[in-house]
Design brief:
The structure is a single chain. The protein has about 190 residues and is an alpha/beta fold. The chain is elongated and about 75 Å long. Strands 2-1-3-4-5 form a five-stranded mixed β-sheet, with helices on both faces. It is built from five helices and five strands.
């Protein structure tokens, strides 16, 4: 007996299923972040901004809902990320349906923050697409994978921080680190 496979196409909440007409364009925002102001990071930052703006504006079913960004800001603490917080607030206010971001590590480097925001966005109908991992947050079946990937991003950030501290301490001990004392206060 030959098995039959039935393909069930997803129903878009932005199209009328009877007429196939777009009811409303999906409001799409993007988030870009780099943690340092080094040249290669700045190039990545500018590329993210340019690509996401172009991608959103060139999709006839999407409406540009903003590009939010944080330059030279760590992803480990949400409080200091003004662009990120504005984007989340816009989503909470019903102005965003989909958020595009380069990767989980660009979105957040704190596992609890990452999962909390993903779950909140899911509860209000906002989807997040992580391009590098090719994951959409709308499917709760990917929560385990999102947990692992965000934990890796958090650990990677911690490891980088430890390496930098070790390097600075080593340079101090060797007398190779010179500090400009003109800018010290106190």
């Amino acid at each position: 007996m030959k098995k039959q496979i039935e393909v069930i196409e997803p129903v878009s909440k932005f199209k009328d299923t009877l007429t196939n007409q777009i009811i409303r364009k999906k409001r799409v925002a993007a988030y870009a972040r780099v943690s340092t102001d080094e040249a290669d990071q700045i190039n990545s930052y500018q590329t993210q901004i340019k690509e996401y703006t172009k991608q959103i504006r060139n999709n006839p079913e999407w409406e540009f809902a903003g590009l939010y960004s944080d330059e030279g800001i760590s992803g480990t603490n949400m409080k200091k990320r003004a662009g990120f917080n504005k984007m989340i607030e816009a989503a909470r206010n019903g102005n965003v349906d989909l958020i595009l971001t380069k990767s989980i590590s660009r979105f957040a480097r704190n596992t609890v923050d990452c999962l909390t925001i993903i779950q909140e966005m899911r509860s209000i109908g906002v989807e997040i697409y992580f391009e590098k991992e090719n994951l959409y947050s709308s499917d709760s079946k990917v929560d385990f994978l999102l947990t692992i990937m965000s934990s890796i991003a958090q650990e990677e950030s911690r490891s980088i921080s430890e390496n930098i501290k070790w390097s600075i301490q080593k340079k101090f001990k060797e007398g190779k680190l010179i500090i400009n004392t003109k800018h010290f206060l106190g």
